[in-house]
């Protein structure tokens, strides 16, 4: 059973469209994260939720909106997609707030390509 | 902006060689240092989380040390095997942004049979 699963794995879409990426974890963790892997391959935090509450919100365009319907799910909705949004997006989860002392468990990533 | 740097960027070794690489991070407001292994076409997998200065952790042939006063951690692999080929990421937890991990760029290790 996959611990952290993201869908879709690949997403190819036109500039200006709105799209969502879904993430689910079955580990019983209470904290979930979205990361963007940038062009230099760094993993950069975008958002973090603890028990459905937003706790980290990095400087991300407000076209990106996370939604956590329950603590096992954290979805990422992106409005008006731009060419610069092309990247690999990773979801992760951890046992305690912020994952400072707890390892994070990652999904396989969603490769978003904007045409 | 927190700086987390890893060196070298890439490393090629022969099977059976022992190797090590470095992660440098801020020495103030430290909380934890994470190491992850990231194999191609898979997701990053946690190796260690280290919180105490002088900490040493071991998992099979892989071990890590931590020096929080000078801001560095070493990852060692003893007797490298081809299946150790992966990108090794470190991530710093601390500073003023509660709960945020700042990742290094990674060291790409290739072990040749």
Describe this entry's structure for a reader:
The complex is a heterodimer of chains A (115) and B (113). Chain A has 115 residues and is mostly beta strands. Chain A is built from no helices and 11 strands. In chain A, strands 2, 4, 5, 6, 9, 10 and 11 form a 7-stranded mixed sheet that branches. Chain A has a 4-stranded antiparallel sheet with strand order 1-3-8-7, with no helix packed on it. In chain A, a hairpin with a 2-residue loop joins β7 and β8 (73-78). The model of chain A has no long low-confidence stretch (mean pLDDT 91). Chain B is mostly beta strands and 113 residues long. Chain B has strands spanning 5-7, 10-14, 19-24, 30-38, 45-50, 56-59, 62-67, 72-77, 86-94, 101-103, 107-112. In chain B, the strands form 2 sheets. In chain B, strands 2, 4, 5, 9, 10 and 11 form a 6-stranded mixed sheet that branches. In chain B, strands 1-3-8-7-6 form a 5-stranded antiparallel sheet, with no helix packed on it. The model of chain B has no long low-confidence stretch (mean pLDDT 93). Chains A and B meet through β5 and β10 of A and β4, β5, β9 and β10 of B.
